[in-house]
Design goal:
Radius of gyration: 25 Å
CATH class of the largest domain: Alpha Beta
CATH architecture of the largest domain: 3-Layer(aba) Sandwich
Distance between the termini: 39 Å
Strand content: 15-25%
Number of strands: 13
């Protein structure tokens, strides 16, 4: 039996008041439970509008949106109980300690009755905070003031705070914006560990395309429409071909040899040749002209993304 998707979006349309066009145009996609899902698109494509509707902070104009089996329009409070959100900018109270931020969040969700100090909180709360703080590597700083935290540590604390009520879906809206490369890498290491421990579905929007390379599924939107959907490999395979670049000191001789071998190549050197990985060795063995350049090009997600957006702008 096919499992019910944890997120189901059908014909979602959004038009803001006084807007000339729709921000979202009948978009549809599904996210499986426990999946790492990435929503990509250029600025103004509709990513923020989509994630705002999914997290119940914005009403759709039409369409059906279900999150954790709850309709976001009819049962927004039930949806909120099932999700966690990390925004682009930290939303922590800098006048509190890290643990106080977490405790306040837990009280808002009705997980525990109010207690004025950590010592008075139930053992289940303490165990949960200790577990998550250890996973995220901030167990030694959990009682420190937020003012002493670096931007990377604040991101980790936001993840801890979001996970304290064990959400089924964790929405990450540009979670590594403003972080350096080392902090981004470390944060993703922690996120992957959290996902493995808690089987949490991750819904990501990002401008760092390398962060989406490990996603199970990617949805690319542009001008409010879905323009591509699939795994990273599927998206790359459908749009970008692998090729090799060959060159020789004697370009005319190489050109004639490529013609004789019936190879499809670019007119001028270096010669760009479409070729699958298993064909490269066979082709190089057949070429007798001494080569000065052999370069292979395998498509990246960024290559495919830029090609998709370019094609979308033509339509």
């Amino acid at each position: 039996m096919k499992m019910t998707p944890i997120i189901r979006v059908e014909n979602l349309t959004k038009r803001y008041k006084k807007a000339q066009t729709n921000a979202l145009v009948s978009i549809s996609f599904q996210v499986a439970a426990g999946e790492f899902f990435a929503l990509l698109g250029p600025n103004g494509a509709g990513k923020t509008t989509t994630i705002s509707i999914l997290t119940t902070t914005l009403l759709p104009s039409s369409g059906t949106v279900m999150v954790a089996e709850h309709d976001v329009t009819q049962h927004p409070s039930l949806v909120r109980q099932e999700i966690g959100i990390i925004f682009q900018k930290p939303s922590l109270d800098r006048n509190l300690t890290a643990e106080e931020n977490v405790r306040f969040h837990a009280l808002l969700y009705g997980l525990y009755p109010y207690r004025p100090s950590y010592k008075l909180m139930p053992k289940t709360y303490k165990a949960k905070v200790d577990e998550l703080a250890s996973i995220l590597g901030i167990d030694k700083e959990i009682f420190n003031p937020i003012k002493t935290f670096s931007s990377g540590m604040m991101r980790k604390l936001e993840i801890l705070r979001c996970l304290i009520h064990e959400p089924r879906v964790l929405f990450l809206d540009e979670p590594t914006a403003g972080l350096d490369a080392n902090s981004r890498r470390a944060l993703w290491s922690y996120l992957n560990e959290v996902r493995e421990h808690h089987e949490t579905t991750i819904f990501l929007t990002t401008h760092y395309l390398e962060e989406a390379e490990q996603a199970n599924a990617i949805c690319i939107i542009d001008q409010g429409k879905v323009v591509s959907f699939g795994s990273p490999d599927e998206i790359k395979a459908d749009l970008i071909e692998e090729y090799i670049l060959l060159d020789a000191a004697d370009q005319p001789k190489l050109r004639e040899e490529l013609k004789r071998l019936d190879v499809d190549y670019s007119a001028a050197g270096p010669f760009r040749i479409k070729s699958k990985p298993h064909q490269v060795h066979q082709l190089l063995k057949a070429i007798k002209t001494p080569l000065t350049m052999i370069k292979t090009h395998s498509p990246t997600l960024e290559d495919a993304y830029l090609e998709i957006i370019k094609r979308s702008s033509w339509n």
